[in-house]
Amino acid sequence: IAGITQAPTSQILAAGRRMTLRCTQDMRHNAMYWYRQDLGLGLRLIHYSNTAGTTGKGEVPDGYSVSRANTDDFPLTLASAVPSQTSVYFCASSDSGGRGDEQFFGPGTRLTVL
Amino acid sequence: KNQVEQSPQSLIILEGKNCTLQCNYTVSPFSNLRWYKQDTGRGPVSLTIMTFSENTKSNGRYTATLDADTKQSSLHITASQLSDSASYICVVSGVGSYIPTFGRGTSLIVHP
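The joint structure predicted for all components is written out below.
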């Protein structure tokens, strides 16, 4: 693994189903982030984690949950998917939060909720 | 509320021409400003970082400027190439803030 990876690459999901998007980084970065990107709205922060064991809410957290059990992994869960959650999801990491460090982004997961 | 506004929203230019993208922000106190390039279907990648004391910084054909007094930044692309076609995103971080503020990006299309 080099950098930050996400899985799956894309997914079509029925409304009401539960879905977990996976994100793993091998850079030993302390901070990790989840964004959604919608046409015309840019990247919007869903949840973030400054270090293993801590998480925080971003701009659009409703309907999503995260956990940070260790440094490398930061999964994003949709408990009961709705069509408005159709989007491209990006995971990112940085050396530390709070200093404006460069964020390294994964390749994204394209999610369609029908 | 911290805001980052980018203009234009989209831009089409011919290969070989220059262009300038604008970013205005209200984030305070200011820590740094980054320009990211996002190719279609990929995640954003950092092009350059500007701190409070820096007025201009170049990265190849990309030159970023910062006016911290007016809270404005620009990204100038010289002698554009087809590979410059992408979205360019301005991201501003405040001192002590864990969450940077993202602009919505400028979509640049370079035509042959």
